[in-house]
């Protein structure tokens, strides 16, 4: 039996960032509890570069004990039951944890098993099937890319549910036939909310994502529950960059909620994707809920730049480990505002 002020489910990007923010406010031990089963914390954006032979695997992960804030209590276990009516959860070891506020940051689950034969194919060292999505298989990707000398490489992109469920099956069969000849298959597995979350329909939307207000990130039914990151139903692109902007909103709204004030902080859907287009080249795409560009820098980001590649390869990992996970990075909004003032001033002087 445990009880705490702030309970955080998941110690990944969103969970660890929120734990860092709240332990600055609530310093006494056990006020902030993090439930997280994994010993290892991954910086997943580097998986793409590891697959391209640009970075080493060891740069993408650190021990969980090292990244979670020291004055948070880490319960190394998985949640199996949410009981929002009585403000508690139950873990797989049978522990019950009572909370005042709960922040759900469970990420996405990779459903490899939804594609028959995929797990066997990935495990087979002689197959040319690979994926950057799994930490246990990302190191194989570059070896397999190097082996290709001719043939066709296929990179999959999963479908959302569609009308006529037969059609995707048919095309899968045709494609499978085609792949028999194929030189390389890179798989993006089907993904979705963690199955545990999906089982709690009072907390989720029809697809199983945590049902929060897209602006305030507060749960739509249980007001002392907030969500951050990949497991919520907010229609932003599911990225770490989005989480950096969400973390400030969740923190402020929780603090206002606890103080009995009105919740006012708003997330506009900022997300970003550094599109590495080749060795030394990258387009930094940044946008909001409406997919309108929300660029940080005062120049047209629609082109490839070496600088953006450097940000992705060197600067963002530094920013992540040293600022974001310590609760000190609220996204690039502050720079965007600063550069906008600068942009306006230079336009005024030209006029
Ligand atoms: P995660 O960081 O995945 O953490 C979820 C945590 O919840 C995990 O530690 C898990 O163990 C835990 N958990 C799950 N179930 C339970 C349970 N039942 N009980 C307790 N804990 C549980 N983003 C960018 O901004 N830029 C990029 O360039 C970029 N590139 C990417 C490339 C790849 C290949 C991948 C895979 C991701 C990339 N991302 C990128 C996305 C980014 O990594 C994610 O959006 C982000 O890490 C999600 O954070 P999260 O906290 O929601 O989930
Ligand atoms: C960002 O903040 C972030 O999280 C640390 C990323 O994840 C790797 C990103 O990819 C991006 C683009 C940002 C946004 C930061 C700037 C300076 C544009």
Keywords:
single chain; 351 residues; binds ubiquinone-1; FAD/NAD(P)-binding domain; alpha/beta; seven-stranded mixed sheet; three-stranded parallel sheet; binds flavin-adenine dinucleotide; 3 domains
Structural commentary:
- The chain is of the alpha/beta class and 351 residues long.
- It has three domains: 2-43 and 54-110 and 193-258, FAD/NAD(P)-binding domain (3-Layer(bba) Sandwich); 112-186, no CATH class; 271-350, no CATH class.
- The chain contains ten helices and 16 strands.
- The chain has helices at 13-25, 46-51, 64-67, 118-123, 138-147, 166-179, 195-198, 240-258, 306-322, 333-350, and strands spanning 2-9, 32-35, 40-42, 61-63, 73-75, 79-83, 88-91, 96-104, 109-110, 129-130, 153-155, 184-186, 191-192, 225-227, 271-278, 281-287.
- Strands 1, 2, 5, 6, 7, 8 and 14 form a seven-stranded mixed beta sheet that branches. The chain has a three-stranded parallel beta sheet with strand order 10-12-11.
- Helix 1 (13-25) links the parallel strand 1 and strand 2 (32-35).
- The longest helix is centred in the C-terminal third of the chain and has 19 residues, at 240-258.
- The chain is globular and about 60 Å long.
- The N and C termini lie far apart (67 Å).
- 34% of the residues are buried.
- The model has no long low-confidence stretch (mean pLDDT 91).
- The chain binds flavin-adenine dinucleotide (FAD) and ubiquinone-1.
- Ubiquinone-1 binds next to helix 8, strand 15 and helix 9.
